Each structure stands twice: as structure tokens, then as C-alpha cells.
């Protein structure tokens, strides 16, 4: 297990409310968010970017694992001034995060597999109790090929 403590930061992108049961049954919103962001090159319209690695944020949880949450796909930023219309800014709070690295493979397979593994991990293996304040995925150069991708999931801990 890899536990890190980091300062908080903002992410700007496009977002929607969803929940895991809806995402699993194929009627979710996450795929549409990815499609829109990539098709329309929306990341290029985000001001004050601090990097090029896409960040997928899960936040505003209602009811933990089975409740609704906000999913935001975007980029970390140095400032939330001048956020364009139709974009959302969310804060990833500082604190302790367990870093879980996926296997390599197609993104459509490795993301749900990694989350399934996280959700079934005993507290000792995860490194603590989940906070359900914010979790996020990092899509860096290891995810450049969507068929041979690898991602990091940062799981917020209490």
C-alpha cells in the first residue's frame, strides 16, 4: 500500500451527478463526459492549468458507496478565476490518500476492475477507512494508449 499526504488543489472540468448502480447498468453519465471532453477538446479551454494529466474526481458523496456523487473530468488548476461557462471547479481537499495503481489494459476494463478491488479491500490493506470526501484518478502518460493503459486512483482516507 502507498499512503501519501498532500495539500488540496482545484480541478476544473465538466461534471455530472451519478451513482454506481446507474454507471454499472450502462445508463450512466461518465462515458458521455469523457466523450464530450475529448471530442470537443474542452481541456484546451480550461484556464490556469498546472499540468496536462486528466483528473477524474469523485466528490459530494451522498450515502457512501451506493449513493449519488459528482463526477468531474478535467485538469488541475492554479486558480479558479475565469472558469468558462459550462465548466465546474471543485476542490480536492488535502489529507491522506491511498494510491492504488491499476493493472495495464483497456481503460474500459481496468477502471471498473480497480474500483472493484478498492471497494473489496479490507481497511488494513487500503491503509485506513475511506472518507468519502474526494477520490480521484490520474490519467498520465501511462494512459496515452487506451488499450494498454494504467492509472492511479487516489482514495481519500479519514
UniProtKB/TrEMBL annotation:
Residues 1-158 form the AraC effector-binding domain. SMART domains: AraC_E_bind. Pfam families: Cass2 (PF14526). Coiled coil: none annotated. Transmembrane segments: none annotated. InterPro entries: AraC_E-bd, Cass2, Reg_factor_effector_dom_sf, YobU-like_regulator. Gene3D superfamilies: Regulatory factor, effector binding domain. This is Transcriptional regulator YdeE. It comes from Tunturiibacter gelidiferens. The lineage of its organism: Bacteria, Pseudomonadati, Acidobacteriota, Terriglobia, Terriglobales.
Amino acid at each position: 500500500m502507498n499512503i501519501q499526504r498532500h495539500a488540496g488543489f482545484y480541478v476544473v472540468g465538466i461534471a455530472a451527478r451519478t451513482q454506481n448502480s446507474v454507471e454499472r447498468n450502462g445508463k450512466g453519465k461518465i462515458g458521455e463526459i469523457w466523450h464530450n471532453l475529448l471530442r470537443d477538446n474542452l481541456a484546451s479551454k480550461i484556464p490556469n492549468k498546472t499540468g496536462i494529466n486528466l483528473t477524474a474526481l469523485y466528490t459530494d458523496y451522498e450515502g457512501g458507496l451506493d449513493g449519488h456523487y459528482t463526477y468531474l473530468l478535467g485538469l488541475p488548476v492554479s486558480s479558479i478565476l475565469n472558469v468558462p461557462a459550462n465548466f465546474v471547479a471543485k476542490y480536492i481537499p488535502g489529507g491522506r490518500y491511498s494510491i492504488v495503481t491499476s493493472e495495464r489494459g483497456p481503460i474500459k476494463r481496468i477502471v471498473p476492475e480497480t474500483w472493484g478491488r478498492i471497494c473489496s479491500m479490507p481497511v488494513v490493506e487500503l491503509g485506513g477507512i475511506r472518507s468519502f470526501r474526494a477520490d480521484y484518478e490520474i490519467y498520465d502518460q501511462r494512459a496515452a494508449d487506451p488499450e494498454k493503459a494504467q492509472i492511479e486512483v487516489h482514495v481519500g482516507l479519514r
